[in-house]
Amino acid sequence: MAGKGSFTVEDGLLLTSGGMGLLWYSEAKFGDASLRVVYRVSRPEDNSGVFVRIAERPPDVWYAVHHGYEVQILADADEWHRTGCIYSMTKALSDVQKGPGEWNVMEIAMRGPAIDVTLNGAAVSHFSSDDPAPPRQFPYEPERGPRPEHGYVGLQNHDDESRVAFREVSIGPLV
Predict the structure, then answer these.
(1) Can you give the pTM of this predicted structure?
(2) Which residue from 68, 66, 64, 98 is spatially nearest to 84, judged by alpha carbons?
(3) What are the residue ranges of helices labelled H in the chain?
(4) What are the boundaries of each domain within the chain?
(5) What is residue 165's predicted lDDT score, i.e. its pLDDT?
(6) Assign residue 121 a region: left if phi > 0, alpha if psi is -120 to 50, beta otherwise?
(7) CATH architecture observed for domain 2-133+147-172
(8) Which residues pair with 116 in a beta bridge?
(9) Looking at the predicted structure, is the pLDDT value of residue 175 above 90?
(10) What is the pLDDT of residues 91-149, one digit of tens each?
């Protein structure tokens, strides 16, 4: 865990709490793989994210932002910052996050330089590090630049008000 935020386990669910934080899997880096995340929000403005390809062990919460890719969880946002986009790098192609209290299934396929995201069975974004990155619009957006094709994965706890529950986080080979 990096940052002051935390995750708690209640009734088999991983719950965000306490402010900005990053829960990351420290045992291995992943390259070509499929990451499946089943989550629900309590409000449309609940903010979280799934980080992939984090270059090194994150010493703080901002490291993953600037040295990995965030697949956003936030329904109440524009297409560059909405659920399923690679945060500020791709537009979300569709707005298919289910309402508060309903479970969502996000699948993130990482293949070479590409990352493809589906949400509830619908294609939401395609990213390739070979494509030019759009310019940063806000100072909190990630720095542009190369990321490795192998890296750590993690879950973001964005802020103290957001309540996101995760019931499954699994990773396996591409199908």
Answers:
(1) 0.97
(2) 98
(3) 61-67
(4) 2-133+147-172
(5) 98
(6) left
(7) Sandwich (2.60)
(8) 109, 126
(9) no
(10) 999 999 999 999 999 999 999 999 999 999 999 999 999 999 999 999 999 999 999 99
Q: 18 CB contacts (<8 Å, ≥6 apart)?
A: 4, 5, 6, 157, 160
Q: Do the bridges between strand 69-73 and strand 164-172 make them parallel or antiparallel, or are there none, so unpaired?
A: unpaired
**Structure tokens of 41?**
């929000």
Tokens of 102: 């309903």
First to last CA, the chain: 30
- Residues in Cβ contact with 4 at an 8 Å cutoff, skipping those fewer than 6 apart: 18, 19, 20, 21
Take residue 35 and report the two structure tokens written for it.
């990451």
- Percentage of the chain exceeding pLDDT 90: 99
Tens digit of each residue's pLDDT (9 = 90 or more) over 151-162 = 999 999 999 999
Q: Encoding tokens for residue 133?
A: 């990155």
| Average pLDDT value for residue range 77-92 | 97
- Cβ neighbors of 156 (< 8 A, separation 6 or more) are 20, 21, 22, 48, 49, 50, 51, 61, 64, 70
